[in-house]
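TL;DR need structure tokens for one chain.
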Amino acid sequence: MGPKRIICLTEEPTEMIYLLGEEKRIVGISVYTERPVRAKEEKTKVSAFISGNLKKILSLEPDLVIGFSDIQGQLAKDLIERGLNVLIFNQRSIAEIITNMQIIGNIVGQSEKAKNITDGWKHQIQTWQKQNESISKRPTVFFQEWDEPIITGIQWVSEAVALAGGIDCFSHLKDRKLAKDRIIQAEDVREANPDIYVGSWCGKAMDWDWVRNKPEWQSTGFLQNNRIYEMDPSIILQPGPALFLEGIPKLREFFLTA
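>> reply
TL;DR here they are.
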């Protein structure tokens, strides 16, 4: 039932399909796949994020290619023009992430198992929200997704910050789907004066010296109190299972530890 030869152009469908025990269906993955570790060892790498090896993808004879975001639009178009079935998700919110992971379960014939998994995430969200009611003062948080230009967090990251017990200093930008629309200036961060800094620079390591030596930020709470943290992009910028399994718990560890 369902497609038997799936290529995943991003990490989150790969992780979800493994969680569902249907990994035998996957024939190709992204070179950026980190989760689960087994996938990196078992599956053929066929794509980066924006581009893909069309020849290799076609040689694997997939009956479904799953991708994410408008950024993969051209790659999707190229594959469709070559006769492949392509499904591109474009989730931005936590609710959309949960819905899309359920859709993946439906596609591989594991609707009930997917529902159990996603219901577990929903229950955990409710638990976090209940626990947050007892926090007397929530820390203000600046989440930085890129360095030059300075880009603040996408919608699901802003929502994750809230679930972790923090307040996103730039939550008014969270609904802006494109990264270019979430560009801010160093002075904006100074004026917001966050208690905590979290960096997860998509695709590269955070430069700690760049953060600590930013002239505009020397008076901020996060520098004065040394509350600077780095997160692995695979657990916070991947809109899938990792967000619930490790991403939000890690944020809570940062925020709720004095």
